[in-house]
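Backbones bend. Our protein:
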Amino acid sequence: MTGPAGASAARSTPARPGPAGTATPGGAPTLRREAAWPGSASGARTPAGDTSGPVGYAQLWAADPGAWTRVGAAWRGVIGPVRQRADGLDARVAALRPGWSGGAAGAAQGRIGALRGALTDVLPALVEVDQVLAEFAARLATAKARLAAAVAHADAGGLLVDRVGAVRPDPAHPRRAAPAGQAVAQVAAELRAALALAGGADREAAARLGELSTAAVTGWVSVPPGARPAPGAGPAEVSRWWAGLTPAERRWLVGHEPARIGHLDGVPVAARDQANRLLLGERRAGLAAARVGLLRPLPPGPPELARQARLARLEAALRGLDGLTERLGEARVPRAYLLGLDPAGDGRAVVALGNPDRAAAVLTYVPGMTADLADAPGELGRAARVLDRCTALGPGEETAAVLWLDYDAPDHLLEAARARQAEDAGSALHRFQEGLRASHDGPPARQTVLGHSYGSLVVGTAARDHGLSADALVFVGSPGAGVDHASELRMPPGQVWASTAPDDVIRLARPPDELARRAVLAGTPLGPVAAVLDRHDPGLWFGRDPSDPGFGGRRFPSGRYGHTGYWEPDNPALDGMARIVLGR
């Protein structure tokens, strides 16, 4: 048995971008059948136990999810030329304005402005096409992984799966003396489940693209909606408000109020990504304008030098973050969703790999000291490694990982010695996790929140002071979680985990009074005795060591990779984190 070699397998036929601002019905991502498709209505045999249906066995086996991801990236690539054309119209209006006035000038400028608006209105739709195709590709990949697992199950049990997905005993297999009915039924059910997942994803993506095609004809946006959520509204209330809007109203909000929508917990991930990508493009355009002198320069002197340095640093950080999200779209890692971006101060970013609203397991990773916008690509790489290991351990499971860098992380040890920044971050992390729950599609996902170093204090403080909508908490390389026992974190028993590498210097972190005591004793005969006792002291800077047995949590091992090596490929800690995310 195994793959459908020699079968007349239909191939996936991804849509190609049409003219800017259009979405053709032919672009629907249907896994079409070709003539004389095995097991189809063409008259080919349909044996008992055949799993052929709207999506056939050989069809799914031959499908290429990566092709859909690449096509989505091509649609997203249209955004740049459209934005350039809109900016070009702005430049033309600016050139005309000094020497042309009167009614005709006003009418011309109005027409050009309307044309520019028509161009920019289509930008969120281009992002949405990319999202639809990327999510279809992700679910198709999951379905293929489940199909492969079913085939492996059949091989191990001495069963044959033919080119149309029919399952039967292999008479040549030495174990076939025993009845095979139950084994055949089990494998057939696994195959049907994989095909059903692919078929459902196919129908959903086709419907979403069909809606976009209709919107292209009727106009991308409509009148703005009425009331907005009250300031301070919780994620559940925001989710209900969003659900009450029409698709056209939602597109209007994304296009006209991206700063509001992009950071509003409770709004679906897809809409937040569209809004934040628009903001990212606007900030990049603003930086470009500053470089060529379209913005009024500040007077010469230190303020201007600081401004130019700030612009250069910010531009490099944004380019690095956006460049990573573009590259990840072509790799095994799922598409990146930009859920928050704030260039103020050191900069903040919230980026998801895969759509948390669609995943069955979601990791939220909170980094520690010195993390800022410039570090976001590297920190996102750590989340990607956990996600990649989740895929290896559970290839048929839908998972997503979020980098949550929406707080002012300490820049140095003196700042990290205080809990203030962690306490300030607690409310935002609480709201974010509540928002993931509120916007999730289908049954609730298993949500895991992981903090590294000072980030573990952020997680622990948020859980202690506000509660976290999470099924598991994980602390790695922790200087203390702000509590002395796992029971203070408001989590179900057995769902607080920790790991500290044997050579992690964080083991030496102690409260200031303890450090002073050590300094006093170091020069006395009691110094060596005190040093031995300190090595067995479970108290760290911010409470009891979460990886100490007396903390009341569960431990998983780490190799000797220091304070930042928990994500190294050979470190057992990486497997440990992935298994916790999957609930294994």
Remarks:
- Residues 100 and 106 are 9 Å apart (CA to CA).
- The radius of gyration is 28 Å.
